[in-house]
Structures are given as structure tokens and as C-alpha cells.
UniProtKB/TrEMBL annotation:
Residues 4-60 form the DUF6472 domain. It holds the Pfam family DUF6472. The lineage of its organism: Bacteria, Bacillati, Bacillota, Clostridia, Lachnospirales. This is DUF6472 domain-containing protein.
């Protein structure tokens, strides 16, 4: 991607070890996928922050 996006900290953006690349786990339609590949998919409606400490805060 040419521009920095919020995908790096999204829970839906995971590493595929078999293919050796990161991919979005959300089923994007053709237009959304084109924007994603072009790096212009700002303001993603599927974005969820990858907050690994969320469970710990609930335990307190």
C-alpha cells in the first residue's frame, strides 16, 4: 500500500502464514477491494481496533 491506513491496527487484518502476506478477513465487494488494494480505503466501515488488552480490563 502506498499510503498509511488504519488496517495495521484492525482486528480484521491478519497475517496469512501460508501465503506470507497480510490480508483483510472481511468479505469486501469488488469496489471496496479495489480501494483496499489501491490504498484509498480510508474510513473503513468494518474497522475494529485490535485491542488485545480488552479482556484484561474486563477482569479488573
Amino acid at each position: 500500500m502506498s499510503s498509511k491506513s488504519n488496517c495495521d491496527c484492525c482486528i480484521n487484518y491478519s497475517y496469512n502464514e501460508e501465503e506470507d502476506y497480510y490480508e483483510c478477513q472481511v468479505s469486501l465487494d469488488e469496489d471496496e477491494y479495489g480501494k483496499f488494494l489501491g490504498g484509498t480505503f480510508g474510513g473503513c466501515p468494518y474497522f475494529q481496533i485490535d485491542d488485545e488488552y480488552r479482556i484484561v480490563r474486563k477482569q479488573m
